[in-house]
Every structure is written in structure tokens, then in C-alpha cells.
UniProtKB/TrEMBL annotation:
The lineage of its organism: Bacteria, Bacillati, Bacillota, Clostridia, Lachnospirales. The chain crosses the membrane at residues 12-30, 328-347, 354-374, 380-402, 423-444, 456-480, 515-533, 842-862, 869-895, 901-921, 942-960, 972-998. One of its GO terms (molecular function) is xenobiotic transmembrane transporter activity. Keywords: Membrane, Transmembrane, Transmembrane helix. It comes from the Bacteria. Pfam families: ACR_tran (PF00873). This is Acriflavin resistance protein. The keyword Membrane applies. One of its GO terms (cellular component) is plasma membrane.
């Protein structure tokens, strides 16, 4: 109580402290980084390896497996996933949360140095997954005056944007890269007894810089180097080449040399027009909002310098961040206003409302200062925590103010302020501590849940501690200085009085029917858990951000012209949508990607003001696109946390050690599932295979000719794909120089079979003499997880399957009748990444909830010096589940990470009414019998219990409505609204009964003494 007396004796000091807190709080707001979500770090390392010209099988056998075997011995690894596709291997290592990733990177680098890979494999690239480096802006660039838009963008636009220090990297998609092509003449090569390798070496010899040493000039020492520079097509033509007969000729004598563009292997469009798109990735410590401002400023500068340049901002996450934070800020202000209105309705005095209302912003500013000290950004999670905190902040202030009013007499406001605070000190202290301890488990929670919601726990704790101090200082001081008067004719005064009298009579009747009260309470609790069984589960709630991602999988090996025809059908469906704002389309171009190279991605951005929700539009498109031939279309509504929505209606993952056996099983399952009337578009990711030409070198025959098999592979790669001989700078652009054979030189299998291979004697031998050439089916992508092959079988439901319940029933039926009979000791069932994450994250949250309940028990037992009273107060927790589950079912909210977190928050908030009631009953029980104490405690505490519950519930309603990105926290708000409502009502009815039973038993035990 010393702090309350000190505040009353030193009012100027107290006010100055408050002013300092306001100044520092406002300063922390201005200096805080604005983000959508807290900073997250995933313990994932990826190994990307390019093996040009290799089939998925070769990539898997020669790169994937050796790397998997080598890195599997590293400590801390949870999962190893390998994806092998044409030309590239991608291996993802998922570590346990808490692993030192710097050490993990170093250990992995050492392991990779020991792995022996084929000579023509490029050095593997190791990268750490950085979620904060995800694109924060997408730009579409066009300039009709440029011959080669791609090269222009790479040379003139990207470097200007990369000058912004807060940008980590910029990814370029679309367009066709220009290069200088040296098109060899096969007849001339034969005439001069030359081959491609000799030409490449001649070019390299004509373009070099070589250090020669040092020399002296006066008193200076200078470096000396020799160099020959080639920087144009004309200079390339005059490069001397020594022919097989010793004669020197020029490169132009045996080849055509000129500027060209690479063959189209990618498609990039914005709103149906060919374009180059840029994805801007920010630095980890940078703010997306600041990056956006700087990028837009640079764009304006570039447009001023390049008159025909057109740069359109397709997507900007800073808009989403600001809209989301503004929405939460409005919710916070509304919550404060609601709190003050309720206080006025109960007390009838505007001063009382202002006293409690003034404690809220001070508490918030203190929380913001502490958030800044902890390095937390202002984001959707921390701001939502403050909104949650508003309802809790006023609890202590209301209880103190109500206590001051209740004991006020003889116009002695100082006595009322001190003694009123003292009377409820134990209650508010216990209530605050119980609210805080429930968040302790979050501090130790690993995984994504801990990273996202740890700041929420800290922020609420900061708010609670600040509100406790505010209730013990600012509220008594303001009460003493401004002298509010409780008006008995307040707007709700008569209603409250009637409720108190009615409640007093009701308690008396309930005490005579204890068994019935407890039976009804238990039945309601059992019913609530039955309701919980009807709720659906998902990792994160869907958010309606107006963005739909459409992934189109076409048959591998299909010519790009045919792919384009398929994609234009998708574009037509999307562009006909009246609620569409814009869209981008990308296909191919990025070899180092976890997605198959035969996948195209269309991202549709919807208007903010639209008639249909994102999910409704997605489902409408899904019905139409599901009927398109020659492709398999998957739609997802994307959010900043994840892709949500049903990617595939039906999905089964199979695992096995043998790829052939796994493929046969998957093919049989697909055949059977195709006959099911509930399913259409049934596929496995191994069935969509493209035929490849396989050249199998006979090592014995090759050795007889003095030819190494690897030499054959390198030669064919050069002849069919060309070789980069050098690069040079042209107008600030790095231009590649490639040596190639004519396009029609080896465009048929007959021509490939006619290739002659040089042997050790200086002659040559036909490739068919040392190798067999034929067609083989090849999977477009081979996936392995933890050293086992993995195949996914997917399908879409027909119109017969409409509701979520229908889907669950059909899925179970198919699982029982079809899937299970294909499982064996060698073929087992796997989980997708979302199911694994859900299992891990939910397990962690359930453990956190259990730990929080235990900690609450410890705190309450210490507060009341009795485990019996502790359990009595904790009876309010199961009562809260009744309303929480009921409201979730009514509003169709799923059980997700945020709703489970809502239950954790609920544990702390629902105890307040129980603590107030039991503490008051104990005080009355010292001077009266248990029955009278129970009744009087209910009469006395009804008003503060109703006030705090109403404020907590009503202040959460704006958050429960959703709003911009509000769907994510909607579940948390609804759980607390429903839980507080049912807990408050039932605790007022059941706690008196429990208290009378347990208190009497406790006294009975003391009688023998």
C-alpha cells in the first residue's frame, strides 16, 4: 500500500512520471518498425545443385542420394526432403527449433566439401530460408522502345532499385535474355578438321586478362597484366582459329555471329500482356513500409529519366500492413470508448469514466515502451494483444474505483482512496498475476507458434503490469483529486440494484438445490465437448486478402506453344471476373524452385470492394477450371502466413523405399479411384511422365575405343545445348557469348544417332557402336523424404460432394475401401507438411495450456493459502469452454493456432470473477456464517464482476468482426467472448454452491481440533 500513499502524498511527482511515460511512449511509437507479423526464423537450409542436361532420375541418383546420405549424419536435423527434376536438385533440411543455424550452416558446408559429385555439376549452393526476405513488392515493367526488354531491365532498372540499402535482392521474371550466338557450320568444321571444343578454346584465348607481375616507375610500384579484350560481335568475327591442318582462319569463316535472344522457355504476362516482372525482397531488419516508400520514389525518378518507361506496382504489402494496423487501431480506440461508456452507465458519473479511461492510454504507452525495449515491431499480433489487453486493463481500475465508492463516507476522499485500494489489493494482485502466468509457457514454446505469439504474451503481460500499477496509483490519485460521486440514479443503477436483489434471492434457492446445480453444470460441460467434436481443424485461419494463386500443371515435355494455349484458357476465365483488379502469370524460367518446371502460376488480385468473398470467387473458378483438358489446376487463397483453402479435395501420400514399386502402387490406386463417382481428375505426381531419350553408354565398348563415358555425356551436352565461351560488357549489360550448332543439326533422333564420337586413335566412332539409344518414360519430379520415395495421389470431388460433412464422409469411405488395401510393410502412408506442422504446433499449444492451468493453480493456492479455494476458482475454466465451443460452432470458426491461443488467454481472463467472489466470501466468512457470506459476497461482487465481464466482452466484438486481415485473430476474440459470457454466468450460479460445500467440509475437518 506504500505506493498508493506515496502517489497521494506526491501528486506532482506522480503526474510528472505519467507525463514522462506519455512522451517516451509516443517516441517509441514513432521509432517502431511497422510489420504485418512478428519476425520469424525457420530453421531450414536448402542445397541447390544444377546438373545441366540431366534427367530427374540422373539428378536423383548422382546428386540427390549422395548428398542425402552424407548430410543425414548431421545433428539437429528433423526432416530431409529431396526434389529431383530435370537439370536441378533441391534438398531441404529442416532442423529442430532452437538449433544454432550458424553452426548448422558451417557443419553442412564442411559435409558438402567432402561429397564427390560428377565433374560437370555446378558447385552446390547452400541457403538459409529467410521468411522476412520474401517479396514485399511486385512490379511490372514495360518499355516499347527497347529491343530487348529483359536485358534493359537487368542493366538499367534493377541496379537503380538495388541501390536502396534496405533491399536484399530483386528477382526478375519474364522476357527473353539476349546473348551473342556463334552458330557453327558443321560442314566447315569438317572441312577444317575442327570441333566445338577447339572453337571455345580459341574464343577464351582471345579474351583474357593475365597478371604478369610488377614494375617500377619512379618511386612507385605498379602491377602489370596482359590482356586481350573482346566486347562486340564484330571483334568476335575476327578471332583467329588454328585449323587442323595448321592454317589460321577467322571465326567468321566457320560460323555465323550475331545478336539474338534465348529460345522461349518461360512466359510472363501482366493483365494478358507480355512483360518483365520484378519481385522486391527486403533486408531482414528493414521495414516493408519504408522499402515501399523508397521504391516508389525511385520509380518516379526512373520514369522521369526514361520517358517511355512504364512501371506498375502490382502488389505492395505495405498497403496491407497499414490497412491492417489502422483497422486494429480503430478497434483499440473503439474498445476504450466502449469501456468508458459502460463505466458511465454503471456509475453515472463522467469523472469516474474519465478516471478509468485515463488509466488505459497510460498503460498502453507503458506497454509500447517495453515493447520497444524488447525489440518488438508494431504488427497485427502485438496490436491485437493491446486490444485484448484493453478489456483486461480496466479490471483492476474498476475494482479499485468501485471499492472506493463502496466504503466512501464523511466526505473523506483520501481515506476512501487508500482504504478502498487496500481492501481489494489482494484480489487485483492475484488476478493480475494469474493473467500473467498463463503466458509463461509461450516464452518456452518452440516452433512457429512460439515465434508468432510470444510477442503477444509479452505485450499482454506488459499491459497487465502497467494497469496494476496504474490502478494502485493513478486511479486513487484521480479519485482523491477529482472526487467523483457515485450516482444512485445512474442509467443502469436501477437495473443493477434489481439484479443484485434478484441474485441474492436466487443464490438462496440454489443453495437448497446444490446437487441439481452441479449436475446441470456437468451436463453442459459434457455437451460443450461434444460440440467441439463437430469443429474443423486447420493450422491457421483463412484470411480474405483478395489474392488467389492458381497453379496449373501441364504435361512435362509439352512445347511452350501448347502450354501457352492452355494458360490462355485460364487467363480468359480470370479476366472475365468483374471483381478482378489485375493478375500476373509466370511459367518456367526458374530452374531452382521446389515446384515442378511444368507448373505455371497465375496470381489474381481482386478489388477491395467486391460482391463476392475470395473463397466464393475461388470456388466459382475451381468448378470451371476443373473441366479444362490437358492440365491439372489447383487454386489457393493466399495470405501472408500461408496458402489457405483446399489445395486438393482429396489427397493421399504414399512412401516407399523402391521407386518402381511405389509408382506401380500409385498407378493402381489412381486406376481404381478414377472409377469412383465422387472423384474426378485423379492423378499421381509420378504418372505425369514425359518420354526422354536415354543414351546408355556401354563402358566396355567405350573403353575399347579409348573413350570415357563421362566424355560422351559432356560432348552431347555441348552439341545439343551449346557452350558459353565468354561474356563481355556492352552498354553496362553483361552479354553471354554462346557457341551452338544449328537448330536443325540434331532436331531428330535419327540425327542424334548419326553423331560421331572422337576416339583415342584420332579417328571417330558412331555413337550407336558404343551406346544404345531409346525412349524411356521419366517422372517430371522425384520426391524423397527422409531417404524414402514419396508420391502424392490427388483428386477433385464432383458436385455430389457439397458440404464439409460430405467431404469428411467420402474421404473416410475411400480411405477404408481403397487406400488401406494398398498399404503394406513396404508401402506406408505419409503426411503433408501442413498436417505435420499442425500436429507439432497443436501439441505445443495443448502442453502450454496444461502448463498454464498448473501455474494458475500454484498462484491461486499461494494467494488463498488453500488448494481447495484454488480449485474452486479454477472451476470457472471448464465453464468457459461451454460458451467458447458454442460460439465457435455458431460462427463456423475452426480450431486453429489462434483459437487455441484464445483458450490460453481465456484461462487468465475468466479467473477474475472467481477471484473477486472467493476473496470477498472469505472476508465475509470471518464475521458471519458460510451461507450468509456466500449470499452477501454475491450481492457485493455482482456489479464489478458484470462490469469487467461486459467491458472485456464488448471491447472484443470489433476484433471478432474481422476486418482487414482480422480473420487471423477472429478465432481468439470469439473464444474469449463466448468463454467469458458462459463462465461469468455459470460461475455466478455454481461458485456459491461449490463454496458452501467445500467451505463446510474444510470447517468440518477443523472441528476435532
Amino acid at each position: 500500500m506504500g505506493i498508493t500513499k506515496l502517489a497521494l502524498k506526491r501528486p506532482v511527482t506522480t503526474v510528472l512520471v505519467v507525463i514522462c511515460l506519455i512522451v517516451f511512449g509516443l517516441s517509441s511509437i514513432l521509432s517502431s518498425k511497422l510489420e504485418l507479423f512478428p519476425e520469424m526464423n525457420y530453421p531450414i537450409l536448402t542445397i541447390s545443385t544444377i546438373y545441366q542436361g540431366a534427367s530427374p532420375e540422373d539428378v536423383n541418383d548422382l546428386i540427390g542420394k549422395p548428398i542425402e546420405d552424407e548430410v543425414a549424419t548431421l545433428s539437429g536435423i528433423k526432416n530431409i526432403q529431396s526434389t529431383s527434376k530435370e537439370n536441378v536438385s533441391i534438398i531441404m533440411l529442416q532442423y529442430e527449433y532452437g538449433t544454432n543455424m550458424d553452426k548448422a550452416y558451417s557443419d553442412l558446408k564442411k559435409k558438402m566439401d567432402n561429397i564427390k559429385l560428377p565433374d560437370d555439376v555446378k558447385t552446390p549452393t547452400i541457403m538459409e530460408l529467410d521468411i522476412s526476405a520474401m517479396p514485399v513488392m511486385s512490379l511490372a515493367v514495360n518499355d516499347t522502345t527497347q529491343e530487348n526488354l529483359y536485358n534493359y531491365v537487368k542493366a538499367d532498372i534493377v541496379p537503380e532499385l538495388e541501390k536502396i540499402s534496405s533491399i536484399a535482392s530483386i528477382d526478375t521474371n519474364g522476357g527473353r535474355e539476349g546473348y551473342i550466338k556463334i552458330r557453327l557450320n558443321p560442314e566447315k568444321l569438317n572441312q577444317y578438321h575442327l570441333n566445338m571444343n577447339a572453337i571455345v578454346q580459341s574464343i577464351k584465348s582471345a579474351d583474357f586478362t593475365y597478371p604478369a607481375g610488377t614494375t617500377g616507375v619512379g618511386n612507385r610500384k605498379l602491377a602489370v597484366s596482359t590482356a586481350v579484350e573482346v566486347n562486340s560481335a564484330e571483334q568476335l568475327k575476327k578471332i583467329p582459329v588454328v585449323a587442323g591442318n595448321g592454317k589460321t582462319i577467322y571465326l567468321e569463316d566457320i560460323a555465323e555471329i550475331g545478336d539474338t535472344v534465348k529460345d522461349q522457355d518461360a512466359i510472363g504476362r501482366y493483365n494478358g500482356k507480355d512483360t518483365v516482372t520484378l519481385s522486391v525482397n527486403k533486408q531482414q531488419k528493414s521495414s516493408a513500409v519504408e522499402v515501399s516508400k523508397q521504391v516508389k520514389k525511385t520509380i518516379e525518378t526512373l520514369k522521369a529519366e526514361h520517358k517511355n518507361l512504364d512501371i506498375v506496382v502490382i502488389d505492395d504489402t505495405s498497403n496491407q500492413i497499414q490497412a491492417s494496423l489502422n483497422s486494429v487501431l480503430e478497434t483499440m480506440i473503439l474498445a476504450v470508448i466502449i469501456s468508458m461508456i459502460i463505466i458511465f452507465l454503471f456509475f453515472g458519473d463522467i469523472k469516474a469514466s474519465l478516471i478509468v479511461g485515463s488509466s488505459i492510454p497510460v498503460s498502453i504507452l507503458v506497454a509500447l515502451i517495453l515493447m520497444s525495449v524488447m525489440g518488438f515491431s508494431m504488427n497485427l499480433i502485438t496490436m491485437s494483444a493491446i486490444v485484448l489487453g484493453v478489456g483486461m486493463m480496466v479490471d483492476d481500475s474498476i475494482v479499485v474505483l468501485e471499492s472506493c465508492f463502496r466504503i466512501h463516507k464523511d466526505d473523506d476522499y483520501e481515506y476512501s482512496a487508500v482504504e478502498g485500494t487496500k481492501l481489494v489489493l489482494q484480489s487485483i494482485l492475484g488476478g493480475t498475476i494469474t493473467k500473467c502466468v498463463v503466458f509463461i509457457p509461450l516464452v518456452f514454446l518452440a516452433g512457429m507458434t512460439g515465434q508468432i505469439f510470444k510477442p503477444l504474451g509479452y505485450t499482454i503481460v506488459f499491459c497487465m503490469m502497467a494497469s496494476l500499477i496504474s490502478a494502485m496509483t493513478i486511479v486513487p490519485l484521480c479519485y482523491f483529486k477529482y472526487r467523483p460521486v457515485e450516482k444512485h440514479n445512474s442509467p443502469l443503477g436501477g437495473i443493477v440494484k434489481a439484479l443484485q436483489n434478484g441474485y441474492r434471492n436466487l443464490i438462496g434457492k440454489l443453495l437448497d438445490r446444490k446437487a441439481m446445480v452441479l449436475i446441470v453444470a456437468v451436463l453442459l460441460l459434457v455437451g460443450s465437448f461434444m460440440l467441439a467434436g463437430k469443429l474443423k481443424f486447420e493450422l491457421m485461419p483463412e484470411t480474405d486478402q483478395g489474392t488467389i494463386s492458381i497453379t496449373t500443371k501441364v504435361k512435362p515435355g509439352l512445347k511452350i506453344e501448347e502450354v501457352d494455349k492452355v494458360l490462355k484458357q485460364i487467363e480468359t476465365i480470370v479476366s472475365d471476373e468483374k471483381d478482378l483488379k489485375s493478375y500476373t502469370l509466370t511459367y518456367g524460367g526458374n530452374a531452382v524452385s521446389m515446384d515442378s518446371s511444368s507448373n505455371a502460376t497465375l496470381t489474381a488480385y481482386l478489388k477491395s470492394e467486391r460482391e463476392l468473398s475470395t473463397k466464393e470467387i475461388m470456388n466459382k473458378w475451381k468448378k470451371v477450371m476443373g473441366q479444362l483438358p490437358d492440365c491439372n489446376v489447383t487454386l489457393t487463397s493466399t495470405s501472408s502466413m500461408q496458402s489457405s483453402g483446399s489445395k486438393n479435395d482429396f489427397e493421399v501420400i504414399l512412401k516407399g523405399a523402391k521407386l518402381d514399386r511405389l509408382k506401380d502402387t500409385a498407378d493402381q490406386m489412381v486406376t481404381e479411384l478414377t472409377t469412383r463417382p465422387e472423384l474426378i481428375k485423379v492423378h499421381s505426381d509420378l504418372e505425369n511422365a514425359a518420354p526422354v531419350v536415354k543414351i546408355k553408354v556401354d563402358p566396355i565398348k567405350a573403353a575399347a575405343e579409348g573413350i570415357a563415358p563421362v566424355t560422351v555425356g559432356g560432348m552431347f551436352n555441348s552439341m545439343l545445348s551449346g557452350v558459353e565461351a565468354t561474356t563481355f560488357d556492352k552498354d553496362g549489360q553483361e552479354i553471354s557469348v554462346k557457341v551452338e550448332y544449328p537448330e536443325d543439326a540434331y532436331d531428330t533422333l535419327d540425327k542424334v544417332e548419326g553423331i560421331m564420337v572422337p576416339n583415342a586413335t584420332g579417328g571417330s566412332v558412331a555413337i550407336t557402336d558404343i551406346a544404345s539409344i531409346g525412349y524411356e518414360d521419366s517422372a517430371s519430379t522425384i520426391t524423397r523424404k527422409n531417404k524414402q520415395y514419396q508420391v502424392t495421389v490427388t483428386g477433385s470431388f464432383t458436385d455430389k460432394v457439397k458440404t464439409e460433412k460430405d467431404k469428411q464422409m467420402v474421404t473416410k469411405e475411400i480411405d477404408d475401401q481403397v487406400v488401406k488395401k494398398y498399404l503394406s510393410d513396404t508401402i506406408t502412408r505419409g503426411q503433408n507438411s501442413e498436417a505435420e506442422s499442425m500436429s507439432d504446433e497443436f501439441g505445443g499449444l495443448f502442453l502450454a495450456i496444461a502448463t498454464a492451468i498448473f501455474l494458475v493453480f500454484v498462484v491461486l493456492a499461494a494467494q488463498f493459502e488453500s488448494p481447495i479455494f484454488s480449485l474452486m476458482v479454477m472451476a470457472t475454466i471448464p465453464f468457459s469452454f461451454i460458451g467458447a465451443f458454442g460460439l465457435m460452432l455458431i460462427t463456423n470458426v475452426s480450431i486453429s493456432m489462434t483459437s487455441l491461443l484464445g483458450f490460453l488467454v481465456l484461462i487468465g481472463t475468466v479467473l477474475n470473477s472467481g477471484i473477486l467472489y472467493v476473496d470477498c466470501a472469505n472476508q465475509y466468512n470471518e464475521t458471519m456464517d458460510t451461507r450468509s457470506a456466500v449470499i452477501e459476497a454475491g450481492f457485493t461482487r455482482l456489479r464489478p464482476i458484470l462490469m469487467t465481464a461486459l467491458i472485456a466482452i464488448l471491447s472484443l466484438i470489433p476484433l471478432a468482426r474481422g476486418g482487414e486481415n482480422g480473420e487471423m485473430m477472429q478465432g481468439l476474440a470469439l473464444v474469449n467472448i463466448g468463454g467469458l459470457a458462459s463462465s461469468t454466468l455459470l460461475s455466478l450460479l455454481v461458485l456459491p454452491v461449490l463454496y458452501s460445500i467445500l467451505r463446510r467440509k474444510k470447517k468440518d475437518k477443523k472441528v476435532p481440533e
